[in-house]
Amino acid sequence: MKKLLLLLFCSSPLFAQDDLLDMLEKEDAKKTTFTQATFKGTRLINGQTVETLAKQHLNFWISHRFGSINSGFIDNFLGLDEAKIRLGLEYSLTDKWLLGAGRSTIEKTYDIYSKYKVLAQSNKMPVTVTLYGGMTTNTMPSGYTTSSGNVMRYQNNLQRQSYFGQVLIARKFSDKLSLQLMPTVLHNNKSESIYLDNNLASMGFGGRYKLTNRLSISAEYYKNIVDKEDYEEGAGTPYPYQDSFSLGFDIETGGHVFQLHLTNSRGMTEKHFIGQTLGTWGAGDIFYGFNMARTFSLEPKKK
C-alpha cells in the first residue's frame, strides 16, 4: 500500500524519475531480508553448519566411514572390507532450535547435542551465528585398548563422558560461496594418558562452493591448539593425534542430502574427529565415506 501511494504521489511531473527510484529503494532498504540456504544441510562434512531445521521437522542421518585407502587392495579392498557407522536423529523445536542424538560404532559412543541460531545473516546482519554443544558417552568395556595404543580403564560412568561446545559463524558471500568459522572447546572427564590434557581448544574452518543447483564441493579443517613438545617430553613418544582435514561433495535430491567425502578422520563425533584423528593425508591414511540425511515433516496437517 505504501508503494502504491508513493507511486501515485510521485507520478506528478514535479518529481523526476530518478527521485522516484531513490525513494522506492529507501523504502525497500527499511525491510529486513534474511539470507537463505547458507549450506545444504545441518552438517558440513564431519562437523556441523549454522543451519537448523524448520519447526517440527525431523532429520535422520546415516554416516558411514570405510577403512583407509592405504590398507591394501588384496587384504582390505582399499578399505571397503571394513566400516564404521553412526545413526542419528535431529528434531527442531522451533525454526532456530534443534535437538539431536546418535550412536556411533566407534568406541560404542552415544551422543546428544543441541543447536540454537542466535543471529541470522540479512541485509542488516553480515553473518549467521549458531551456538552448538553436547556430550558423548563411551560404552566400551573398561580395560580396552584405544586406537592410539593406550589402555582405558574406568572407575565410574562419569569418567566415560566428554563434552564439547562450538560457536558457528558463517557468511554466504554469494549464491555459490559460503564460509564458516568453528571455534571449539572439548573436555574429557578422563583422558587416555596422564600426559594428555583433559581440555582441548581447536579452531575450525570450513566452506562450500556451489557448482550447480544440486551439486557443491565442501572442505573442512580443524587446527588443534596443543603443546606437542610438552607431551613428547613427558610421554617419551610422538604426539599421536593430527589435525582433521576433509573434502567432500554434496548432492541434493529432493528430500535427501547425500554427502560423499575423503577425510583423515574416521570418527563422526567431535570427540573423535577433532580430538582423536590419527591419520595423515601424506601417508595415505584417508577414509572415504558418506553422510545421508532424510528430512521428514511432523507438522500437523492444516484443515
Description:
The chain has helices spanning 2-10, 17-29, 73-76, 228-235, 270-273; strands spanning 57-68, 83-92, 97-104, 109-119, 128-138, 144-145, 151-152, 161-172, 177-188, 199-210, 215-225, 244-253, 256-263, 287-297. It has 303 residues and is mainly beta. The strands form 2 sheets. Strands 1-2-3-4-5-8-9-10-11-12-13-14 form a 12-stranded antiparallel β-barrel. It has a two-stranded antiparallel sheet with strand order 6-7. Mean pLDDT is 90; it is low at 4-10.
Shape verdict: globular
Which structural class do the helices and strands define?
mainly beta
What number is the mean pLDDT? 90
Number of helices: 5
| Strand-residue proportion | 35-45%
User: What letter string, H or E per element, gives the SSE order?
Assistant: HHEHEEEEEEEEEEHEEHE
Strand order of the largest sheet: 1-2-3-4-5-8-9-10-11-12-13-14
Low-confidence segments, given as residue ranges, are 4-10
Task: Work out the radius of gyration.
Answer: 24 Å
Report the strand count: 14
Largest sheet: 12 strands, antiparallel, barrel
The level of helicity is: 10-25%
Cα distance spanning the termini: 30 Å
